[in-house]
Amino acid sequence: MTTFCRFFLCLLVAAAPMGVLAADLGGETDVIILDPLGLIKASDIDFGAVALGSGGEGGTITLNGETSEVTVTGGLTAMGGTPAAGLFHGRGANNFVAVLNVQRNITLTRENASDTLTFATRINSDWTPWFGNLYLDIFPGSGLLDIEIGGTLTVPDDAPEGVYKADFTVVLNYF
Predict the structure, then answer these.
(1) Contacts of 59 (CB under 8 A, 6+ apart)
(2) What's the N-to-C CA distance of the chain in angstroms?
(3) Residue 45's closest CA among 104, 86, 80, 83?
(4) Residue of 91, 77, 96 lying closest to 138 (CA atoms)
(5) Cα 46 vs. chain centroid, distance in angstroms?
(6) 42: left (phi > 0), else alpha (psi -120 to 50), else beta?
């Protein structure tokens, strides 16, 4: 979360000894105040539950960031749960450039173990990939942006049963 305020203040004062000459000059004052940048999480990413194939075959789970629909490939079978894309709401100044930083690859770790899965994030189509982990957008007239995060989770063959979790950071700046 970033808040940026810039103040310009120009003041000119002319003073002369009493009883002598005096002159008046005008001063100028300007201020630019930007709306505070805000970012809140509305929902976490949840791929739901999946089962490996009968021979232990893995595959991929793709979570659509805009619809929260899940598709599976390989030997995986979707087993329900409540799949949900990650949803964040951003607020900033109208027509300013927004820069979003989200990890492109996140490693999930099985609770109480060291087994891992890899999740390749995908941001909703309103955002333009820039470079590295950065994406660009323009705050619309409302000053509000949605950040929807989905992606593809790779489940290797014979992945151990369990709950896999990861924390990740979403950073939003504007200029």
Answers:
(1) 53, 72, 73, 74, 75, 76, 155
(2) 13
(3) 86
(4) 96
(5) 16
(6) alpha
Look at residues 130, 76, 77 and name the one whose alpha carbon lies nearest to residue 101.
130
Instruction: State pTM to two decimals.
Output: 0.76
Q: Are 137 and 65 in contact (CB under 8 A)?
A: no
Picking from 105, 65, 119, the residue whose alpha carbon sits closest to that of residue 87 is: 65
Asked whether residue 4 carries a pLDDT value surpassing 50, the answer given is no
Given this model, what pLDDT does residue 131 score?
85
Say if residues 38 and 72 touch (Cβ distance below 8 Å). Answer: no
Residue whose structure tokens are 């409302």: 142
Strand partners, 91: 38, 144
State the residue for tokens 């989905």: 150
The tens digit of pLDDT for each residue in 40-84 reads 899 999 999 999 999 999 999 999 999 999 999 999 999 999 999
**Is residue 99 a contact partner of residue 147, using CB atoms and an 8 Å limit?**
no
Determine contact, residues 123/103, Cβ cutoff 8 Å: no
Find out whether 39 and 79 touch, Cβ atoms under 8 Å.
no
